User: What shape does this take?
Amino acid sequence: MPILTEDVHAVIEVAQLAFVATVTPDGLPNLSPKGTLRAWDDDRVFFLDIASPKTRANLIRNPKIEINVVDQLSRRGYRLFGTAALHYDGSEVYDEAMTRLFADRAVPYPVACVVLVDVERAEPVYSPAYMRIDTEAEMRDTWRERRRALDDAFDEYCRESPFEPPPGERRA
Assistant: This one.
């Protein structure tokens, strides 16, 4: 039986942002957002290491990983536990991952490696919001409305305090 069910695949596809937890050499947690998480097959996921040297160093030392992926509107999600392997430019996994994510387009940023995770188990995430909301449709409608209000407020904040990337991180 596959670890990544149809539902896990659907959540990964819609979420567009996941959080990856690794462990530092000091035993501390390291949490890093990933916008490239995709299912590889029914038992593995992958993401690109674009700007995560700490995550990469942690995985070289200890390949155990946890990934948390949740759809914001429905609060449906999963915790994925597994073991990661790093694949660099020129490897079959790297080349296949680039094809899956970019097809025939140019890769828009440097990619240090592809992280392929053998998922050992997937646990559902249950939101306590369902204690007061009866259906997923109602949850999605509630958060869609709330999301609009949050976006409007943050848009106003951004107009007043625009984000400036650090000098070394700007586009040339």
Q: What stands out?
A: The longest strand covers residues 113-125.
